[in-house]
Amino acid sequence: MKTNAFNKRGISPVIGVILMVALTVILAAVIGVYSIGFSDTAQPYVNAGLIVDESDEGVEVRWISKGNADTVYILVNGSRVSGSELRSVGSSVTVTADDGDSVSIMGVNSERDAEQELKFLNTKRDTTDGSGVPQVVTGPVTLSASVPHTSEPDCSSDVSYVDNDGDGRLDVSNDYELQCMELDGSYELVTNIDASGTSSWNGGSGFAPVGPSFPETFEGQFYGNGYKISGLTIDRPAESEVGLFGYAYRDATMSNFTLEGVNITGSSRVGGIVGRDNNASISDVSVSGSIDGAWFVGGIVGEAQGTSMTRVVSSADISSSGRFAGGAIGRLSSNGSISNSYSTGDVQGVDRVAGLAGSTRDGGAILSSYATGNVSGTGSYVQGLVGTNYGGLVDKSYWNKETTGQTTSAGLPDSYGLTTSEMQGSDAESNMSGFDFVNIWETVESDYPELS
Questions:
Q1: CB 255 within 8 A of CB 227
Q2: Closest listed residue to residue 296, CA positions, set 328, 325, 258
Q3: What is the pLDDT of residues 417-449, one digit of tens each?
Q4: What pLDDT band is residue 175 in, cutting at 50, 70 and 90?
Q5: pTM as predicted
Q6: What is the 3-state secondary structure (H, E, C) of the chain?
Q7: Residues 271, 296: Cα–Cα separation, whole Å
Q8: Structural domains in the chain?
Q9: Confidence band (pLDDT; 50, 70, 90) for 300?
Q10: CA distance 365 to 237
Q11: Per-residue pLDDT tens for 312-339?
């Protein structure tokens, strides 16, 4: 029986016991409350200080003291769990457990070329069933967010990336690794990231956009693997090209992640994912929170030229003190496109203000998308879906004329403005023609369509 896991239903309510784990020490038969540790001559080969914490959500393994391990990761039934790696003190992983399977904690010391199972030096025994023997536990793994840092990193000394699964993408597991990405690198999220500490970085200016401006543009790849980044703060009201990425260029790729609860302020070209991009690719991302700026402000991108965006979702509230504000994008041009996407956040500005895009021009296309958030503006071209359209294409897309407060849109007949009841439930399928409700969209009872 494995000795580094517990029975979910049989763990003592006294939790949060600090555990030192070491490869070369085998847990002795449990006779007393604690197992015996090292002998006088035994030396640890790989070790780390961990806390194992039992809760209703599962068993949390949290790294609190580095030891000599470079990485700690989890096996479930002998198979490595993707995304379970712990790479820094303060990181954690939670295993939500079912009885009968097994979880092992593995340690890596790259200098010694060692990668083996860690054994508990001290552990609480399970006494609820009278056996006094630690039980085996496992289940599907869910990841808790990384522990946030309250001051900005020194990227030359605070961050060292690894590619733990050997796929050619460097792992991003905390806010420091997010901040220090190189402009031409390939990266992937391996856990959720709590970025709430960024509110106090850089004297209150927050996170520094990756690829701040031309010619320092982000031209790499960022794959989210379905994880989320929460609480990101950027407060740079005098700066342009503001977002998680400032300026994404050429073949830059950003996909499959969520920005949750952002608080982003900039001047011109301000967005949740990217402030400005040129010929990039953005897919399967979503943004919530608030985004403020002057010109070219959007939930996903401030301004995009030649960029392909598909399956992007924004519920962020947008505020602009100038022109070109949209729920998803401020302005789209140069044969860029948004398809199979939607925005539900409120948008307010001066002119060229709309639920999805402030403006399309020069071949910019909006296809099979919709908007529902309230739209307001003090100037002209304040519309339901698109503010202005000069040489662009708007097709098979809709807005809620009740919730947006707008009955018109550039690029579309007024008939594409629908009521709430026409856009919700099964009625959406009959009223929103051109949406693929077989492969891409699905109706939701008493709610708007969602991406499947």
A1: no
A2: 325
A3: 999 999 999 999 999 999 999 999 999 999 999
A4: very high
A5: 0.73
A6: CCCCCCCHHHCCCCCCEEEEEECCCCCCCCCCCCCCCCCCCCCCCCEEEEEEEEECCEEEEEEEECCCCCEEEEEECCEECCCCCECCCCCEEEECCEECCCEEEEEEECCCCEEEECEECCCCCCCCCCCCCCCCEECCEECCCCCCCCCCCCCCCCCCCCCCCCCCCEEECCHHHHHCCCCCCEEEECCCEECHHHHHHHHHCECCCECCECCECECCEEECCCCEEECCEEECCCCCCECCEEEEECCCEEEEEEEEEEEEECCEEEECCEEEEECCEEEEEEEEEEEEECEEEECCEEEEECCEEEEEEECCEEEECCEEEECCEEEEECCCEEECCEECCCEEECEEEECCEEEEECCCEEECCEECCCEEECCCCEECCEEEEECCEEECCEEECCCCCCCCCCCCCHHHEECHHHHCCCHHHHHCCCCCCCCCEEEECCEEEEEC
A7: 8
A8: 8-142 (no CATH), 170-418 (2.160.20.110)
A9: very high
A10: 30
A11: 999 999 999 999 999 999 999 999 999 9
Q: How far apart are the first and last CA of the chain?
A: 42
**Strands 103-109 vs 114-117: parallel, antiparallel or unpaired:** antiparallel
Choose among 208, 191, 199, 340: nearest CA to 257. Answer: 191
Radius of gyration of the chain (CA): 25
